Amino acid sequence: MLEKINHVGIAVSDLDAAIDHYRTRFGVEPESRERVDTDGVEEALIRAGQSYIQLIAPTGPDTTVARFIERNGEGLHHIGYEVDDIDATLAHFKAVGARLIDAEPRIGGGGATVAFVHPKDGLGTLIELVAAGSGHGGGDR
Ligand code: CO
């Protein structure tokens, strides 16, 4: 069920500054940059081998990521686990009583099929299930 870490999401207040940070530290450029209005974020994907660093910046003060940064400051926001069959994984999560944010898969950044699991059900870490082969890390973006 747990194929690999698709991406690690880091909440940042200034996306340009964060991209520049990775550029000066690691000499890398984002593979993509995208505004995802349904999530209230602008995100940039930086490849790290077979996985990605997803820098996510809020598009406005009334967004979940803006509130996250207000509470916690910039930093680790979520981990995206890649799963082969997201429908089967969600069905399993429901069966074991997991606390889900998304009861059904939805389309996230990069056109990926995703579903979020509540941090209270993720040992304090927000978890994003990412359907293998969809969107980021699918190899066909
Ligand atoms: Co993500």
Tell me what the structure shows:
The chain has helices spanning 15-26, 64-72, 86-95, and strands spanning 4-11, 32-36, 41-48, 51-58, 75-83, 106-107, 113-117, 126-131. It is of the alpha+beta class. An eight-stranded mixed β-sheet has the order 2-3-4-1-5-8-7-6. β3 (41-48) and β4 form a beta hairpin. The mean pLDDT is 93. Bound molecules: cobalt (II) ion. Cobalt (II) ion binds at residues 7, 9, 54, 78, 80, 128. Cobalt (II) ion (CO) binds at residues 7, 9, 54, 78, 80, 128.
Bound molecules: cobalt (II) ion
Rg is: 15 Å
What structural class results from the helix and strand content? Answer: alpha+beta
Mean pLDDT: 93
Task: Characterize the overall form.
Answer: globular
β-sheet strand percentage: 35-45%
User: How many strand units?
Assistant: 8
Summed up, the helix count is: 3
Question: Which blocks of ≥5 consecutive residues have pLDDT under 50?
Answer: none
The run of helices and strands is EHEEEHEHEEE
Estimate percent helicity.
Answer: 10-25%
Widest sheet, order of strands: 2-3-4-1-5-8-7-6
